[in-house]
Amino acid sequence: MRVFLAYLMVIAIWTTTPLAISWSGEADWFFGVAARIILSALVILPLVFWFTNRPFSFAWSALKVYAAASIGLLGGMTLIYWSAQTMPSGWIALIWGLNPIMTGLLVHYLMIGHKLTPNKLLGIFISMAGLVLVFAPNLDTQQASLQITGLAVAILAAFFHSLSTVLVKKTNHELPAIHVVAGALWITSLAYILFNPNVLINWPSLSHRSSFAIGYLVIIGSVLGFVLYYYVLKHMDAIRLGMIPMITPIFALLLGYFANNEQLSLTIWLGAGLVILGLALFELNTLQRHYKQKRLLETGE
What we know:
Blueprint: H1 2-24, H2 29-50, H3 60-83, H4 89-96, H5 99-110, H6 118-135, H7 144-171, H8 177-195, H9 208-235, H10 238-241, H11 244-260, H12 266-282, H13 284-299
């Protein structure tokens, strides 16, 4: 039950995160992501000692887990913040929805026992067609090249997040989820500070909603969200965890429409439907195995 509740909370957090990312980076996208990660690293540090009995490990095996987790922040989070300034938040959610496909592809090549079936390949094709349907008719002719670049960068961000998920899962570690998150946050924070030592000294002028979004992402999106994410990751297979983005894009599109006046046209809805249909086809074998095992357990065969 606790894993299921954590799973639902991750879905809720991921639904609101794209819009919060868009708002938090309005003044300066790099400040938005750096402030989020560095402040989260500071907030989570006392929690590591208050809520776990195990000492924080600096063993080489643990450091590899932290490094694998940081790929999703350095590669994924940094790039998604930049691309979020080139397109509506709902589109970001749709691109982030490609995580199951990218996770499945990486699992196929990095973990033994997973194959690409015809329905998975068809699912990839349909989801990509859905993204084209969302983007092509709705590109701003004045900023088309920037938006296309943003699309490519956002897809690369989703790839890094998926790679991080698979690498962390592959380590088969026994570390507490909060330790994994803290290690990843601190590695990423150090990288940001090395890149720009004055990032938290020279604060840009922030609107009220930008300040709120950064605070929300520090407490909910990063500390709570990542702890729940790695807690669920530890108790579920990587592909099933990757199904979360199959659920969140629709809610994220609606949230962007009502809270941020983002466009919702027929082609966007049709494209979103194709993306989700492709994801469902991609996960069809996983769902079939799940229900088959469930029936076997119920019948005792």
